[in-house]
Design goal:
Blueprint lengths: L2 E8 L2 H31 L7 H6 L1 H7 L9 H24 L16 E4 L6 E4 L8 E4 L3 E6 L7 E10 L2 E9 L12 E6 L3 E5 L4 E3 L3 H4 L1 H12 L10 H35 L2 E5 L3 H4 L6 E2 L7 E2 L3 H14 L1 H15 L2 E5 L24 E3 L6 E3 H20 L1
Parallel strand pairs: 8-11, 11-14
Antiparallel strand pairs: 1-5, 1-7, 2-6, 3-4, 4-5, 6-7, 8-9, 9-10, 12-13, 15-16
Helix pairs in contact: 1-4, 6-7, 7-10
């Protein structure tokens, strides 16, 4: 099991400038390697450049440009080249699968936000010894940076990453060999149904409210985006006021993201503490939030039939605001570390099957909130019925495994 720790960095003004320079130089290396691959394929008889060949050129690159490339860690530059190699591997995999390929793109300075150090002690050292009251991380070319370590680090540090989020800097430690801490058993299982009206509903009938963080910040976000949109295209990226407006929008989105993650951690922790087995629907959030395809009108060439795109856009926004994918990822990680079991079941017809008689019909779901069985008359909250059916399917899955 690999666990990640994310801590806020507190660099000085000079270190902040150096961190920005590190990102720019690694971004330049990434883009240069990408350009070399493009040129080799287009102009040299479709020649493919591999990671090993580009990594072997690093020594010459560092000697040629000691001010920009020679000052940074050799292993971190290798990790940047591996990042490009993984992008190409994913590209060719999509080509073979027949999906939309998405050729690797050049990274702008504002998009390249992470530098990875593959090994603690090689260009980067984590220093949290008891002799020092303040935890620090040492980066080659920058020095010791203070770290706001809000919890102890357990396990063996594998990689160290430095990440920029808006105007903040973070260090991310990926650790393995974590000691397991199983919680006392409760011998209780539960099913949960994710929703938009309620964040989730349990098979015990409990509803957890949907905080709707994006909606709560919508007024402030709309105003910030309106200010950003006032700048014409020709002045963008050149105006100090435009950059300030862009940073304001980014800060609002970052706050929403942190609130959503904090809520997911708290709800997941409560479930893991109280239940041995937690069942949920196997949700395909990416498929659920697809935009409806246009429907050409056969009677009027060039026109399209109504496809409820506006209503679907509102639903997609609500689904993404709920953050189901983030929550389920956090739940799986917490359950694994606590020795709990999480089971994903088939979501089909969970809100249409009567838990009393087993009758399945679309008409059983009278409204979004009400369930009334057309066969036996059983009535209950539709989300509660879905959570109960999820738990029943998880029980069948456990029986099949046994």
């Amino acid at each position: 099991m690999i666990h990640a720790y994310k801590f806020l960095l507190r660099p000085t003004a000079r270190q902040t400038v150096a961190l920005g320079g590190m990102l720019r130089d690694h971004c330049s290396l990434y883009n240069g390697a990408l350009q070399e691959r493009r040129d080799a394929y287009r102009h040299v008889s479709k020649t493919t450049v591999r990671y090993g060949e580009q990594s072997a050129q690093l020594k010459e690159i560092r000697a040629f440009d000691p001010e920009r490339q020679g000052r940074w860690s050799f292993s971190s530059q290798q990790a940047t080249l591996r990042r490009l190699d993984k992008a190409f591997a994913a590209f060719f995999q999509r080509v073979r699968a027949g999906d939309t390929p998405g050729y690797p793109r050049f990274q702008g300075v504002g998009r390249f936000d992470t530098v990875v150090f593959p090994k603690d002690g090689d260009g980067c050292r984590w220093d949290s010894t008891p002799q020092h009251p303040q935890t620090r991380v040492r980066l080659q070319g920058i020095g010791h940076i203070r770290v706001h370590q809000h919890r102890p680090v357990r396990g063996r540090i594998k990689t160290i990453s430095v990440k920029r989020e808006g105007s903040r800097w973070y260090v991310v430690l990926a650790c393995d060999q974590l000691p397991t801490e199983p919680l006392p058993g409760t011998s209780v299982a539960i099913g949960i149904d994710m929703g938009v009206e309620h964040f989730l509903t349990t098979s015990d009938g409990e509803h957890i409210a949907n905080p709707r963080f994006l909606k709560a910040a919508s007024d402030e976000l709309v105003e910030a985006q309106r200010q950003l949109a006032r700048f014409p295209q020709r002045t963008r990226q050149r105006s100090k006021k435009h950059r300030a407006a862009a940073r304001r929008v980014a800060r609002i989105y970052a706050a929403i993201r942190r609130q959503r993650l904090d809520h997911a951690h708290k709800v997941a922790l409560a479930l893991v503490r109280d239940y041995d087995v937690i069942a949920h629907e196997r949700l395909n959030t990416a498929g659920m939030t697809l935009t409806p395809k246009p429907k050409p009108d056969p009677e009027r060439p060039g026109s399209f039939l109504p496809n409820s795109a506006a209503a679907k856009a509102g639903l997609n926004r609500s689904i993404l605001d709920a953050g189901w994918g983030v929550f389920l990822t956090v739940l799986a990680n917490k359950a694994e570390s606590a020795g709990r079991r999480v089971i994903a079941v088939d979501p089909r017809n969970t809100s249409r099957i009567c838990p009393s008689c087993g009758h399945t019909a679309k008409e059983n779901r009278v409204t979004q909130a009400n369930f009334v069985c057309m066969a036996c008359g059983f009535a209950a909250n539709a989300d509660h019925v879905a959570a109960t059916n999820v738990l029943n399917r998880a029980g069948l899955a456990l029986c099949d495994v046994a």
